[in-house]
Structures are given as C-alpha cells and as structure tokens.
Amino acid sequence: MAAQRGEGETTTTPAEPADRERARAIPEAAVARLAVYLRVLSGMADQGVTAVSSEELSQAAGVNAAKLRKDLSYIGSYGTRGVGYDVEVLVSHIERILGLTRNHSVAVVGIGNLGHALANYGGFPGRGFPVTALFDVDADLIGIPVGGIPVNHIDEITAICLEREVSIGVIATPPPAAQSVCDRLVSAGVQCILNFAPVVLQVPDNVEVRKVDLAVEMQILSFHVARRADEAASVSVGNNGLGVDGMVIRP
Amino acid sequence: MAAQRGEGETTTTPAEPADRERARAIPEAAVARLAVYLRVLSGMADQGVTAVSSEELSQAAGVNAAKLRKDLSYIGSYGTRGVGYDVEVLVSHIERILGLTRNHSVAVVGIGNLGHALANYGGFPGRGFPVTALFDVDADLIGIPVGGIPVNHIDEITAICLEREVSIGVIATPPPAAQSVCDRLVSAGVQCILNFAPVVLQVPDNVEVRKVDLAVEMQILSFHVARRADEAASVSVGNNGLGVDGMVIRP
DNA sequence: CCGACTTTGTGCATGCGTTCACAAGCGGTA
DNA sequence: TACCGCTTGTGAACGCATGCACAAAGTCGG
Ligand SMILES: NC(=O)c1ccc[n+]([C@@H]2O[C@H](COP(=O)([O-])OP(=O)(O)OC[C@H]3O[C@@H](n4cnc5c(N)ncnc54)[C@H](O)[C@@H]3O)[C@@H](O)[C@H]2O)c1
Ligand SMILES: NC(=O)c1ccc[n+]([C@@H]2O[C@H](COP(=O)([O-])OP(=O)(O)OC[C@H]3O[C@@H](n4cnc5c(N)ncnc54)[C@H](O)[C@@H]3O)[C@@H](O)[C@H]2O)c1
C-alpha cells in the first residue's frame, strides 16, 4: 500500500520549496554518517581529546575528509579555519540534529534468541535509547524480567506503549508474525520501527521503517566473493567469455 | 589504512574497460535488492506460484516496478514479454549471480548475547550459510556446544578457519576486541567480514567488510522523529525561524 | 602588525542510481 | 496468418551523492 520510504512530493507545487525545508534536507546517507561521527567523537571526548581536524576525524570514521566536511556543513559551520573542530561542540550539535536531546523509549517485541540479546544489551540506554517494554506471546515468558524489564503479553502493547511513550518499536518475532506485530505497534502510535524479521512490512506514510536483514548482508558478501573468484578465474585461465558456473559474460 | 570499500581503479588505463568487467558491474544497491527479490521469490515458489509479473513482484518486494526490471536486467533477460517471469528460473539465476551455488561457511567470533543468538539461529544454513565454527576467549565457554557447534578458543582461529574453509567471519565481540579479531580473521584468509561491534575496522583492500550498527539505525529513526516533530511544531506555531530546541532553521 | 601557514567550507564537475516512457517482442485469438 | 493486448527491457533524463580543488578565514610566530 504505502511505500516503505516516502517518495517526496513531485513538483506539483510550482512555488519554491520553503528555505526551512531545504535547511532540513540532510541527505539520508549523510545522516547515517553523522551518527558514526558522533560515536567516534564521543570516544575521543572520553579520552580527553578536545579538538580534532577534519583529516583526523575522517580517518577515524573511515571516510573521505571532503565528504566529512560536507556532511558537517549540513548542520552548520562550527569549525575554526586553521584549527579544526571542538569535540564537545560538534558532539552537542550532532546530538541536536539527530534528535538525541531527548530520550527515545524502545519496545522490543519477540523475546526469543534475538530479543533476549537486545534486551540484555547495555549499549542502548547510554546512547539515549532506554528499553522500557518487552512483549511476547509465549505464556512461559510473561512476567519474567529480561535485562531488568518484565515481559508483557502482546495484547497489552497499546496501553503500555502509550503509557511509557514508546517511540521506537523493534520487531524480533518470526517472519509470519511480523506484519501483525507491526500493525499493532502502529495502532499504538509508534512511528519508528526497526525490523529484524526477513519480511517487507507495509506501513502508512507517517511511519518510518528500517530493516536489518542479516541474510541479505551475507548474500551481498557472497556476491563479492563470487565476483572476485570469477575475476581470478578468468585472469588465470584467459577470457573465454565464460565465468564460473558457465556464466556467460560476453554472450 | 585501506578504505573500507574498494575505490575502483580511476582511469589509469586509457583503453576501454573490458566488456566482461562492465557485465559484472552490478550496482551495489541492486545487489542488495536482488537478495530481497530472491527471498520473496523463494516464498512464492514454496506456495506453488510458478509465474510472476514485474508488477506483482515489485509490490511484494516494496519497490518500484521499473527499478525491479532494471535490477533484473543486470543479470540477463529471463522474462517473457506479455507474460512475466518464471519463478524457478529467476530464483536460479539470482542465486547464481549472488554466488549461492556453493555454500559459504560462517564463523562467529564472540559468543556472548549476540553470538549466542546468531549461533542458535536456524535461518542461515537453509540459505546457504552454514555456521561451522564459533570462537571466544572466555574459558567457561570453550568446548560448550552452542547451536550444535562447540566453541573454540580464539587462538585456534587460523587453523580452524583454514580447515573448515570459512569464507565469512562474523564479529560479535566487545568493541575493544573487534580490530584484533578482525586482523586474526584476515590472517586466517577470511575475505568477508560482518561486523556488529560499533567500531570502524581497518582492513586490506582485498577484504570486504559490512557493518550492522543498531545504535546508528536507531539514531537515524530518531532523526526522522525529530524532523517530523519540528515540522509539526513550526506548522502549528507558525514559522518563527526557530525549530524545537531553539534550532535555527532560517538564520 | 604582518605575513606565512593551516584548515575549513563550498562551487563545480563527475558518476551513480532512480524513474519515466515507449519500442520491441510474445502469446493468444480470430 | 494477421492482429491485438500485455509485459518486458532499456534509452534517456533527472536528481542525488561523491570528491576535487581552491578561496576564505582563521592562528601563530616574529
Ligand atoms: N537470531 C538471529 O540471530 C537472527 C538472525 C537473523 C534474523 N533473525 C530474525 O529475527 C527474528 C527473531 O529471531 P529469533 O532467533 O529471536 O527467533 P525465536 O524463535 O528465538 O524468537 C521469536 C520470539 O517471538 C515470539 N513471538 C512469536 N509470535 C509472536 C507474536 N505474534 N507477538 C509477539 N511475540 C511473538 C516467540 O514467542 C519467540 O519468543 C526472526 O524473524 C528471525 O528471522 C534472527
Ligand atoms: N547484544 C546486542 O543486542 C547488541 C546490539 C548492538 C550491538 N552489539 C554489539 O555486539 C557486540 C557483542 O555484543 P554482546 O551483547 O553479545 O556482548 P557480550 O559481552 O555479551 O559478548 C561478548 C563476547 O565476546 C567475547 N570476547 C571478548 N573478547 C574477545 C576476543 N578478543 N576474542 C574472542 N571473543 C572475545 C566475550 O568473552 C563474550 O563472550 C558488541 O560489540 C556490542 O556492542 C550488541
């Protein structure tokens, strides 16, 4: 029904887009990198580093220095030419842009293998994402605390999500249950969903979904292995127009 | 030192790139989607569906139909105009391109919360990614089977990875250990790494790294919440040039 | 106070990825 | 066989992202 990712209004309005909209138009790819810069900068701050140049930071973050500066320029001009950036200042501005000035309460649904790992993980609360609710259908799990939070029955999801102001829902159920869980989260007012189930979720336009699909990640790695193996083969054996598996490369 | 992602040879060779190289130049984004199509198609095949049109498949995969057809065109012309695609045929060709005609043995390093979940997960072997080795430093874990595989000490990593022909290494250790584990995997000949530790890994050019960073995913979601909240605020309150948190939108 | 040096911020070109739109091709039908 | 309707495959245009290269803007030493 609705696209997973908002498709943005095509030029139906001949009028200019408002400046404030353009100011907010930070490329999605840049947002992801800003989160990485933030982590690196936090680490530096913890080690007592107070200033950093774009060159140093870009090395630590594994990106091109020019790209880093462009990314930072989307959020403003907080560097000092000839010197670099103040670590604390940069941290606070990135946090502001990413909306980390307030906490985002997280609910995990499906307390199996993965749900347990997520609930027990200590890394989220410190980064502004306290896990405040756990849900499952398994009667044996209800009431048991995992990572300090008792598991509730999925039927209580609406009431509890509203009460605890959950803003991010994490789906860690088996694939067949994922869409139904997603629908319940959405009716409970949750507008952000992180989905671990290998399923394409259908959601309304106002809900943001991100997926983590480990099988897909592995298949991408597999593709690169195959490509490399194929290249090696065709180099050593000479280009006969056939790759491994009889794949026709030059028909 | 080396970039996380190969930067591709710049035009040092004035000669044309060989056709076979171009044939292999499937955009990274398309590869990721091909993996999704494969999953959807496999599900359809299981339900006895034998033919599918680009429109149907694109709906099920949550993408634009034109994009889907272009993605499929990278791997060849296996559709029938006026009819659609044969599900089995498409499955086998995508599998071939993704290098899934042979199994890729997986090693998991760091059998803590996350490592246990991964080792116990039944979804990988069926997709061609059997987990064949587990490693940790914790003496209490060594020898204990998890998901049917006994945990080995990290010091045995080289010998065991070579013996079991591990092609994908999964890092699920605490962040400080990640780089050292990565180096060990690389010296054991592993060329593909999936990294869960929130750390930027340094690897040689011939090694492919993909990272899964849940905190980053949540921060991206947080960004979108903040953007939406800000838009709503500036609409209801009128645009005064200030967003939430006193963020200056139009300086 | 000045000049040399350092590093930011960004205009611009280039390349990649997405989307549109339509000709080409195939099966079915008369 | 000839026509018709449907769906694929792709050329072309567009928009987004990347990386270069440099002017602007600051620091520091003398
Ligand atoms: N474990 C992994 O490493 C891993 C890796 C990749 C993908 N995944 C995916 O993550 C998801 C969870 O994996 P897992 O290994 O934790 O599975 P699991 O079977 O261990 O746990 C699933 C949990 O969800 C609960 N559940 C089932 N239906 C539910 C519903 N309608 N509402 C609420 N809870 C419900 C079950 O009771 C169970 O506790 C699956 O979709 C799986 O494909 C897991
Ligand atoms: N658990 C989660 O849900 C989650 C979420 C996001 C990120 N992560 C990341 O994933 C990684 C693992 O998380 P976790 O919760 O499983 O941690 P954990 O502490 O439960 O497990 C880490 C395991 O790694 C082992 N280990 C430590 N040093 C090692 C070494 N040098 N070689 C081999 N093994 C070693 C430890 O003995 C332990 O068993 C961390 O980097 C964490 O930041 C975890």
UniProtKB/TrEMBL annotation, chains A, B:
Main location: cytoplasm
Keyword Nucleotide-binding on entry: no
InterPro entries hit by this protein: CoA-bd, NAD(P)-bd_dom_sf, Rex_actinobacterial-type, Rex_DNA-bd_C_dom, Tscrpt_rep_Rex, WH-like_DNA-bd_sf, WH_DNA-bd_sf
GO molecular function term, any single one: DNA-binding transcription factor activity
Annotated region described as Disordered, given as residue ranges: 1-23
Function: Modulates transcription in response to changes in cellular NADH/NAD(+) redox state.
Protein name: Redox-sensing transcriptional repressor Rex
Source organism per UniProt: Lentzea albida
